[in-house]
UniProtKB/TrEMBL annotation:
Pfam families: Abhydrolase_1. Residues 57-183 form the AB hydrolase-1 domain. The keyword Lipid metabolism applies. It comes from Sorangium cellulosum (Polyangium cellulosum). This is AB hydrolase-1 domain-containing protein.
């Protein structure tokens, strides 16, 4: 019997800031999926279906600044169908509908905490929690999500020379997937000394927003470069890591849907989920 993708939503409370934010969950199920519209996107999921399997690894996906969890739907769906629980929080004040905290120190402090709160919520959920494995959590981050992943995994960001941004390492984070990560806040020599999790680091050849030097910081500053699997995606741009957009959204004026000339985003997103899953499978097999 084939596995399909189940979905449901949680609402997570941030008591420190007196706000709540949604977390979209995708996970394996045996219930046949249907096409469900979520905003302008169509997802093939079984809403609120029961979870299939046990000891499932948890992956938390942190979206880019001013963006949305839905733009990583192909990657999340593939992982869920492959036996992972994927939690995708919408970062409050730094998403497509509300950018009131984008590019603020508050956002840099809060984003990692949002991931920790999301992990807490999934782990304590009556349906999902008992189905999770005990081998830790992987974090996938694109752009500002890459910053968030490094910060929650032990990175110490700085707003300026000697000005630490207060973040807390989550010891449950055991693997990172960084896609075109924004790393400028980790420029000091010891900023990543406590990031010991294995990393899959993917940078785009023609990225003008987070150029290759930002990925190079990770290679240079983590304590064990051998823990980093590094790849430059040929001819890709910063937004090439986003799932292909519906045809009506693929206009020259909508930059997230645009790629460098000749780049095949559809083909790339048939390969990317498999590469990410292969990396995570190796991590969890090694830990098992």
């Amino acid at each position: 019997m084939s596995r399909f993708v189940g979905s449901r939503s949680l609402v997570v409370r941030d008591e420190a800031k007196d706000l709540s934010f949604p977390v979209l969950l995708m996970y394996p199920t045996r219930v046949p999926a249907e096409i469900v519209a979520m905003g302008p996107y169509s997802l093939e999921v079984a809403p609120n279906a029961p979870v299939d399997g046990g000891a499932l690894p948890l992956v938390v996906l942190s979206h880019g600044g001013g963006s949305s969890p839905f733009v990583y739907r192909t990657l999340a769906s593939h992982l869920a169908q492959s036996g992972y629980v994927v939690a995708m929080p919408e970062h409050p004040g730094d998403n497509r509908n509300d950018r009131s905290r984008s590019e603020t120190l508050e956002n840099l402090r809060d984003r990692p905490r949002h991931l920790r709160l999301a992990i807490d919520a999934v782990a304590s959920d009556a349906e999902i929690g008992p189905r999770l494995g005990e081998d830790g959590v992987a974090v996938i981050g694109h752009s500002m999500g890459g910053y968030t992943a490094l910060a929650v995994a032990g990175g110490q960001p700085f707003a300026g020379y000697g000005q630490k941004i207060e973040v807390t390492k989550d010891p449950r984070v055991k693997a990172l997937v960084l896609m075109a990560p924004a790393t400028g806040w980790f420029g000091l020599n010891d900023a990543l000394k406590d990031v010991t999790a294995p990393i899959l680091l993917l940078v785009a050849e023609h990225d003008r927003m987070t150029p290759r030097w930002q990925g190079q910081l990770v290679l240079d500053l983590v304590p064990d470069r051998a823990q980093v699997t590094f790849e430059v995606v040929e001819n890709a741009g910063h937004h090439s890591f986003l799932s292909p957009f519906p045809p009506q959204m693929r206009t020259p004026g909508f930059l997230p849907a645009c790629d460098p000339a000749g780049f095949d985003r559809e083909a790339f997103h048939r390969k990317l989920p498999q590469d990410v899953r292969a990396f995570l499978d190796r991590i969890w097999s090694r830990r098992g």
